[in-house]
Amino acid sequence: MRIIITALAATLAAATSASAQSPGISGDVVKIGVLNDRSSFQSDLAGVGSEVAARIAAAEVGNKVLGKPVEIIAADMQNKPDVATSIARSWFDTDGVDMIADNQLSSAALAVQELAKQRGKITISVSSATTRLNGDSCSPTGFKWSYDTHSAAAATASAVVKQGGKDWFFLTSDYTFGHTLEEQTSKVVVDLGGRVLGAARHPMGSSDFGSYLLTAQASGAKIIGLANGGTDTINSVKQGREFGLTAGGDVSFAGLAMFITDIHGIGLEAAQGMLLSTSFYWDRDEKSREFAKKFAAEMGRMPTMVHAGVYSGVRHYLRAVEAAGTDDGPTVAAKMKELPVDDLTIQGARIPQNGRVFHDMYLVRVKKPEESTGPWDYYDVIATIPAKDAFLSFEESGCKL
Amino acid sequence: MLDVLNISMPMLFGQLTLGLINGAFYALLSLGLAVIFGLLNVVNFVHGTQYMLGALFAWMLLHYLGIPYWGALLLAPVGVGLVGAVIEVTLLRRLYSVDHLYGMLLTFGLVLIIEGFFRWLYGASGMPYSNPLPGGTNLGFMFAPNYRLWVVVFSVAVCFGVWYLIERTKLGSYLRAAIERPDLVQAFGINVPRMITLTYAFGAALAGLAGVLAAPIYQVNPLMGSNLIIVVFAVVVIGGMGSIMGAIVTGFGLGIIEGLTKMIYSEASNTIIFVIMAIVLLIKPAGLFGSQK
């Protein structure tokens, strides 16, 4: 009997010391889940491209951290919050996923971030845009890369107002995202001395915008702020051109949440002259082109700011795991906030306590067809928007951490 | 009344005109659906996808072969009609003897497969298609894009033509007879199965035609049909399943009602059609122009 107990104790001691010595990688693998819409109308701006971006980041560290493999899995949440949370739950509880990247659709992202917080896991939200992720619903393990509703509002609106576009009308998608965007942008416009003359709130997935454009025109507004997304934005711009609103240069559209894939879909003919803000443009510098080249080799098209954000987020996460010596969520999260973000798309950005990465944004103007050398040569970068102007500071965010 | 709602007369006329334009699309789409349902008793869920195919074929013709809009207006519907014929001959034909539900399930499955395929091929953001009739006409109360005026005129002509073909010509009478008593019509030496194939192909081609008309206005996108098909079904139900005149009149009428809703309370613009549908079904279950069988 005594022999058995001694042996047991020895085994136990050995097991304990072994786990203390080896780097703490749960399940001997660093597992990253890319969760987004891969099938419905938001699938181009994120979708499979985000998974590819995550793989590019993993390949930069040889698909290994602390001697353990990095595994990337992906799932389609079909743009539905209930699907997103049930996938996240099974990833955390049974599949040993350590971090969820991209985390699309604001309503879904908030739920998944909360779940991750309870489980001590990390989320790196990119395509979801609500500032609540780092505001009243912030989490110690929740991070946000790329644009958000505040950057879309503050950066674009202030730039447009400064250029003389003072009278605004909004085409707003009738749900959380659109309302937040309209509200935040209106505030910026009014603060800078502009006026908001009205708004048309349309159901998501409308195909005809003629009526709204007519209302906008009747209001006398000079700037139509597009607080909608995806196909709705594309159709608004396309039809604005058709109704002669933008042809004479009398009225301009301000794209608040637009991606390069949207411009590709609209075509330069209709989109030319639009002002937008973006956290990434592939043709901005040598490094951004290097990332875009790797991405295009896989996808056959250029990355959006979401793809760049997923790449940067995953890259930074892996660096933090390496530095922390573990994949334990809260420990890695603390390390992520300690280290500067440094990769092909973002250089030297810091992350405050609420997890909102402080990187620069860029104000771009869509090129005229004759200025473009071919597909994806769409933007002129006309200004760099410093992070402090683009994003809410930790104090302003309303995050209590 | 108008003053209370803060609406000016030019604004009202503008919205009415726009509603008429949108109604033209509804009419054209529900017309094809009504033809297929009325003559074949098939609930053609794949109709929205056939509309999408029309727009997509127009884009492909331009992009790969350099054939402009006016050529596509003829060729793309023919292409969609051919796809329709293949669907009818290889799949749909086997289901005429069983419950309607099977046809609906089959066509719904086709929607998922075809849309999924093109989404995989081209992505979800869609492709640009430039406007063949840029510019517009000042109607006094509004700036009417030339292209949309063309859409209204052309759709009205097509709708009337189809109604005339089916209700007033000899060919139309054969068709209606073949549906009622296929055995008898066959006995007169008419090839009924071929006639049915052609009818389905024709209905699909109408959807394809609407798709080509839509390409310069709406985004050409693999999912464009699924946004519209539910509304179009509501139009057909309100008009009376299978009633050709019903589909046309309801299509235009609902376009106008929807346009007015957009002006007065835009949040409800999608819902209003279904509210009307519910009311019509309560009062007249067979639809406004439908007859109880």
Entry summary:
Helix content of chain A is 44%, strand content 19%.
Index terms:
heterodimer; A: 401 residues; alpha/beta; Rossmann fold; six-stranded mixed sheet; 15 strands; globular; B: 293 residues; mainly alpha; ABC transporter involved in vitamin B12 uptake, BtuC; two-stranded antiparallel ribbon; 11 helices
Our measurement of the CA-to-CA distance between the termini of chain B, rounded to an integer number of angstroms, reads 42 Å
Query: Can you tell me the overall shape of chain A?
Result: globular
| CATH homologous superfamily descriptor of the largest domain in chain A | Response regulator
Structural class of chain A: alpha/beta
Number of domains of chain A: 2
Helix proportion range of chain B: over 70%
Q: What does the overall shape of chain B look like?
A: globular
**Number of distinct beta strands of chain B:** 2
Radius of gyration based on Cα positions of chain B:
19 Å
Tally of separate domains of chain B: 1
Low-confidence stretches of chain A: 12-22
Which second-level CATH architecture of chain B applies?
A: Orthogonal Bundle
Query: What can be said about the biggest beta sheet of chain B?
Result: 2 strands, antiparallel
Report the CATH topology name of the largest domain in chain A.
Answer: Rossmann fold
Give the amount of beta strand of chain A, in percent.
15-25%
Helix content of chain A: 40-55%
Explain this structure to me?
The complex is a heterodimer of chains A (about 400) and B (about 290). Chain A is an alpha/beta fold and about 400 residues long. Chain A folds into two domains: about 25-145 and about 285-360, Rossmann fold, CATH 3.40.50; about 150-285 and about 360-385, Rossmann fold, CATH 3.40.50.2300. Chain A is built from 15 helices and 15 strands. Chain A has helices at about 1-20, 45-60, 80-95, 105-120, 150-160, 175-190, 210-220, 230-240, 260-265, 270, 285-300, 305-325, 330-340, 385-390, 395; strands spanning about 30-35, 65, 70-75, 100, 120-125, 140-145, 165-175, 195-200, 225, 250-255, 275-280, 340, 345-350, 360-365, 380-385. In chain A, helix 2 crosses helix 11 (about 285-300) and helix 5 packs parallel to helix 6. By secondary structure, chain B is an all-alpha fold. Chain B has one domain: ABC transporter involved in vitamin B12 uptake, BtuC (Orthogonal Bundle), CATH 1.10.3470. In chain B, strands 1-2 form a two-stranded antiparallel ribbon. The model of chain B has no long low-confidence stretch (mean pLDDT about 90). Chains A and B meet through strand 8, helix 7, helix 8 and helix 9 of A and helix 1, helix 9 and helix 10 of B.
